[in-house]
Amino acid sequence: MENGFVEFLPWMFMLFGVFLAGGSLWVIRSETRGRHWREIEGRITGYRTHSSRNYEGMVSTLHSAEIAYKFPGMPPALLVDDVATGEIPEIGKTVRLRYNPDDPAEVAVWAPARLSIFYIAFLAMGLLFIAAGVFALYIGPS
Known about the structure:
Shape: elongated
CATH architecture of the largest domain: Beta Barrel
Helix content: 25-40%
Low-confidence stretches: none
Structural class: alpha+beta
Number of domains: 2
Largest sheet: 5 strands, antiparallel
Strand content: 25-35%
Number of helices: 2
Radius of gyration: 22 Å
Strand order of the largest sheet: 3-2-1-4-5
Order of helices and strands: HEEEEEH
Number of strands: 5
Oligomer: single chain
């Protein structure tokens, strides 16, 4: 039983690494999908506040910016940023937005670097788990 687990352990490492690396690549790809979209300017007009309680009962408050934008010849529209932070957004600040020219209803805040370090770290961890699994397969019990 114990020997079977030891032989399976490298595969578990590699599977976990594939999960981390694959998930990171999927998120990086979806976050940068707008790099070929058209850019427009938006302005922060307000914010929405979200409170949540963690398992210890501590309350944290996060704020999501409400961004107004307008396409030429269209009425103004509102976008709520999908990234919430602990800081209150600066009302009146301009924000870069990008929209899909094939589907102008698809609009996103254009800030590809704001979470890239986080995703790159998970990608690197995934690759390390894969490498550790491959290494363990070659030096493991014969």
